[in-house]
């Protein structure tokens, strides 16, 4: 397969990274399957295994992958080409938090999607299917953005603190955290209590975290609420989470916010006009139901469901439920950005700035022809928007555009 000038340049650039940097081996490396997408070969090569870190790095330096992956699963024979012969016996519980799956207003500015069947396109977050023809074959063009990355990080912290630690009782010492190299984060849980969980058990966990099928009546929002105590903000799990969320929502909601959630102006006005009374009841010890004539249990349940939508976590359920998933290899380079797949501790996560801290290449400048690019930030500099222009850019910004296919090399 003959490479373009741009791909040849990127391969040499990636090769220089792998010569200078040793990629650390994953836990139990000899039990993991590895897969790679190379510059000069179609598709993925997989069913590979390495006995140690040295052997892994020898492969990376010799083959220079565009993308590198390793399995969340542990196998008896990870290099067996037939999945049935690998001998699966365990898998990390993994979570993928990606800005692509989180609705942020900035996507209208920098993302667009195109239906591969009918050609219909639009800006913003891609739908599940094309509204014009119903096809699910969508091509998505997404860009790095400070707000998207910060939202994905906040969602990751929420996942860990509110769900994995608080609700599931897992330990930070049995977790690892990675910036994906693109628009999100990966959390790996390797506690023995989760390693042998089935796909069905993992789906139960994803449904819980995503509030799928949540029914407010099982958390105190029932027709017998008059004789029961209101959910306490200190209650564990979703009961306490809904109580806290309800208090926060009522505290800051405008009349229009309430009307959008409830769909009824009269009920929205009753809640809005009685805000202080409601908050006093919710915050009392013990909390009391804010009994307001004209506001039914179904109205409170609607607000509870709205709150659940805010407090749930945006994880990719397909990743978590897949017990044989290939994940990005920490220490490798993401071929769509030229950024490192960066390992982090949880304490490092909050102050981590991927647009600075995950740069694989820092020095030098490069002249490129940019076909089209929205405004973006890399390092501490802002670039673009660009449209059919030749520019000289810092090396990491130029590599990013080349990886995106948005730029080409300029002949000197």
Structural write-up:
- The protein has 412 residues and is α+β, with helices and mostly antiparallel strands.
- It has four domains: 5-100 and 145-208 and 315-357, DNA primase, PRIM domain, CATH 3.90.920; 107-141; 216-311, Helicase, Ruva Protein, domain 3 (Orthogonal Bundle); 365-409.
- 35% of the residues lie in helices and 21% in strands.
- It is built from 15 helices and 18 strands.
- The strands form six sheets. The chain has a four-stranded antiparallel beta sheet with strand order 2-1-3-12, with no helix packed on it. A four-stranded antiparallel beta sheet has the order 6-11-10-13. Strands 8-7-9 form a three-stranded antiparallel beta sheet.
- Strand 7 (112-115) and strand 8 (121-123) form a beta hairpin.
- Helix 7 runs antiparallel to helix 10, helix 7 (237-252) crosses helix 11 and helix 8 (255-262) packs across helix 9 (265-273).
- The chain is globular.
- The model has no long low-confidence stretch (mean pLDDT 94).
Distance linking N and C termini: 26 Å
CATH architecture of the largest domain: Alpha-Beta Complex
Summarize the amount of helix as a percent range. Answer: 25-40%
Biggest beta-sheet profile = 4 strands, antiparallel
The CATH first-level class of the largest domain comes to Alpha Beta
In short:
The chain is an alpha+beta fold and 412 residues long.
Task: Summarize the SSE layout with pairings.
Blueprint: H1 5-20, E1 34-38, E2 44-48, H2 53-63, E3 65-71, E4 73-75, E5 88-91, E6 93-98, H3 107-110, E7 112-115, E8 121-123, E9 138-141, H4 146-165, E10 175-179, E11 184-189, H5 192-195, H6 199-209, H7 237-252, H8 255-262, H9 265-273, H10 275-282, H11 297-311, H12 317-321, E12 326-328, E13 342-344, H13 346-349, H14 354-357, E14 365-373, E15 376-378, E16 381-383, E17 386-394, H15 395-404, E18 407-409
Antiparallel strand pairs: 1-2, 1-3, 3-12, 4-5, 6-11, 7-8, 7-9, 10-11, 10-13, 14-17, 14-18, 15-16
